[in-house]
Each structure stands twice: as C-alpha cells, then as structure tokens.
Amino acid sequence: MKYPIDLHTHTIASDHAYSTLVECVHEAKNVGLKMFATTDHGPEVSDGPHPWHFNNLKVVPRICEGVAVLRGAEANIVSDGSIDITNEQVKNLDIVLAGFHPNYIPTTVEEHTRLYKKVIQSGLVDVISHPGSARYPSDYEEVLVCAKENNVAIEINSSSDINTRFGSHDNCIEIAKLAKKIGNTISLGSDAHICYYIGNFESVLEILKQADISDDKIINTSPSKVLDFLESRGHKPIVEMRNFFNN
Fold first, then answer.
1. Would you say 158 and 203 are in contact if contact means Cβ atoms under 8 Å apart?
2. Spatial separation of the C-alpha atoms in residues 182 and 32, rounded to whole Å
3. Do the bridges between strand 186-189 and strand 67-76 make them parallel or antiparallel, or are there none, so unpaired?
4. What is the domain count for the chain?
5. What average pLDDT does this structure show over 104-129?
6. For the domain that residue 66 is a member of, what is the CATH number?
7. Three-state SS annotation for 155-166
8. 59 and 30 in contact (C-beta within 8 Å)?
9. 148 lies in which domain range?
10. 3-state SS of the chain: helix, strand, coil percent to 5?
C-alpha cells in the first residue's frame, strides 16, 4: 500500500459506527495496513463513549495480529475553544484529533476560524480533522498558517463528501492546495465507521493529485514517520512499536 497507515477510524464505542476494534484489526490486516489509530468521538456528542473509554485504552495491545494500534480520540471542539478530552486523558493517548461535530451549532466563518486557532494553539491536539466540512467554513489560510506554526497536522479526510459532510469536496481541494503552499504536515484518515472502509483512501488520492502534494509532507507513508511526528508533538515514545518495526 502506498499509504499503509490510517489515522482516523471509529468503532462501536461511537454508537453511529458499526464495527468492534477487533474487527477493525482484522480488516486492517486483510488490506495490508501496518498501523491505524482508533479515534472514537469525545463524550460531548450524544453518542460518544463514556470518558472511561479513553482512560482504559491502555488495555489495547500495542501490536494486534501484526498491526500497530495507536490509542487515540477524535475530540469535539466546543464553544469556548476547548476540547472534550481532559488534559490527563491527552497525556495517556498516542494521538488526538479534533474537529467540529453536531454538538457545536455553526456560527460564522470568523468564529469557526477563532476556535480552530485556539484549539491548535492549546498544544493538546495533533491533527485537525476534516477542516473542509461545508457546515463549518473557516478562513482556511489563516487556520493552516496557525497549524504550521504550531506543528499540528491537517487532515485530508476520505469520507468527506463521500459518506458524510456532503458539499465539502471543493473545500478539501482548496485546503490541500493551501497546505502545499504553506508547507503543512498532512495526515490521511479514512474516517471509517465500519471496518470495511478502513484504509480506503480512494477519494484522498484524487485530492492529493489535484493539489500536487508530494509524499514527503504526508506522515502516513511509514510507521516511523508517524511516530517521529507524534514524538515531535511531545508524546512519549512508543518503544514497543519502534522495536516491532525496526526488527
């Protein structure tokens, strides 16, 4: 696989998803992924898991059936510019995504931009998820410059305008082109809500081609690249994964 890592997936811990973590592991192995992040929604959305879900991710083995599993969350941005994952939970997670979801009622481009920037500058979030959402437009250039300055990755999401967030396609292309110009770190996520979509980057490939983004800015090309990025963000080294991929 050109991109053997999926950094945005969901399980039945988010009620509107349909596969268990074990099923996601099986499918990741089937399609040839080396690593994926399990990133269920924060508790602010009505069907998000209980906070204990994130506290207990430590029971998930680092390597499952030959696939590395990053313990993560997709936090919800809330109206004061914070996220619904606690600082203590962030410390114990490998990766934290954050984006706008229905818990936040859309307001204005200016307010969405302000909240994105506040979340980026908080130091708690590694990846901004699906920033091209048509429901939450922002000043994309201002957001991406802020992300670049704070070493936060920008996601290109394979479900936007395919399974959800319809009307986002042109926004995603614009964001990708801006990311190329600004030099942002890019994260790819299937946003799979069923295991059979995990690792599906078909729509992403089209966007990357239109924006002419080279692989050097995409962290999904190798496990070591993902681990390097997460360590650069202040996360603890995951020794078990380093050893597994170095052997």
1. yes
2. 32
3. unpaired
4. 1
5. 97
6. 3.20.20.140
7. EEECCECCCECC
8. no
9. 5-246
10. 40, 20, 40
Q: What is the pLDDT of residues 131-167, one digit of tens each?
A: 999 999 999 999 999 999 999 999 999 887 666 666 7
The label of the residue with tokens 């991109």 reads 3
Handedness of CA 75, 203, 5, 218 (dihedral sign): negative
- Tens digit of each residue's pLDDT (9 = 90 or more) over 38-87: 999 999 999 899 999 999 999 999 999 999 999 999 999 999 999 999 99
Cα–Cα distance for residue pair 196/26, rounded to 1 Å: 10
Judge whether 232 and 151 are in contact, CB under 8 Å.
yes
Joined together, the tokens standing for residue 160 give 């936007």
Whole-prediction pTM: 0.96
Long-range contacts at 221-226 (CB < 8 A, ≥ 24 apart): 221/2, 221/3, 221/4, 221/5, 222/4, 222/5, 222/34, 223/4, 223/5, 223/34, 223/35, 223/68, 226/5, 226/7, 226/35, 226/70
Q: What is the structure's pLDDT at 161?
A: 66
